[in-house]
Amino acid sequence: MGNCHVDVTGCSLANNTASTSGGTLALWDPAVASAASLRRRHRRSRSLLQLTNSGSISAAGITATQAIADVYPVNSSAASRFDASSSVFSFSLAEAGDGGAVWVYGATHAMLQGCSFGHSRAHSDGGAVALAGVAAVVVLNTSVSRCRAVVGHGGGLSAVGSDQVVITGSDLSSNAAVQAGGVYIAPPSPLLSYSSAPAILIHDTR
């Protein structure tokens, strides 16, 4: 937790479980919240708390990752970075949260290159990987298979609140979710309107 740069290279990570988010790895940088004023954050927090208490978040399909990305908009100039390459993540579980294997909130970028994610499960978003408030997301030559978001979005990958998402040369297969079995890409919250949409490029991916 906090501003840091995480690089996972040539690793094999299996059979890990978290009670909340990030079955194998969780990176959360609260410093990125500086993009919004304290008053604005408090106002949004109160609004989300009221929605939570009334059950409206569940009814609207908003998960914990979406709520966090909304309350704490990313300031990419101050954020952390996450890179994973040539690594295997398997049989990971986020029992009550997002990101069966990996959960990242607040980063200039998250890059997955030459990685393999398999047999992972999250209760909410991102059966394998959940990213919230990550400015740029790159998935290159990576496979995600047999992962599940039990009651959420993105059986393989969830990216909420990103400016750019690039997925190329990758294989996403046999994943499952309530919505978007393979990849889920969205603004921070469906309750708010935004002036621009993320730039999305998906190429040579099956």
Describe the structure.
With 206 residues, the chain is mainly beta. It starts with a strand and ends with a strand. The relative contact order is 0.17. It has three helices and 19 strands. About 17% of the residues have low confidence. Strands 1, 4, 5, 8, 11, 14, 15, 18 and 19 form a nine-stranded parallel sheet that branches.
Largest sheet: 9 strands, parallel
Order of helices and strands: EEEEHHHEEEEEEEEEEEEEEE
Q: Count the E strands.
A: 19
Rg measurement, Å: 16 Å
Shape: globular
- How many DSSP H or I helices? 3
Low-confidence stretches: 33-60, 71-78
Helix-strand makeup class: mainly beta
Q: State the helical fraction.
A: 10-25%
How much strand content do the residues show? 35-45%
Q: What is the oligomer described by this structure?
A: single chain
Mean pLDDT: 79
What is the first-to-last residue Cα distance? 34 Å
Overview in brief:
The protein is mainly beta and 206 residues long. It is built from three helices and 19 strands. The longest helix has 17 residues, at 38-54.
Write the layout of secondary structure elements.
Blueprint: E1 5-9, E2 12-14, E3 17-18, E4 25-28, H1 38-54, H2 56-60, H3 64-71, E5 80-85, E6 88-90, E7 93-94, E8 102-113, E9 116-118, E10 121-122, E11 129-140, E12 143-145, E13 148-153, E14 157-160, E15 164-168, E16 171-173, E17 176-179, E18 183-186, E19 199-203
Parallel strand pairs: 1-5, 2-6, 3-7, 4-8, 5-8, 6-9, 7-10, 8-11, 9-12, 10-13, 11-14, 11-15, 12-16, 13-17, 14-18, 15-19
List key phrases describing it.
206 residues, 15% helix, mainly beta, 19 strands, globular, 5-stranded parallel β-sheet, 9-stranded parallel β-sheet
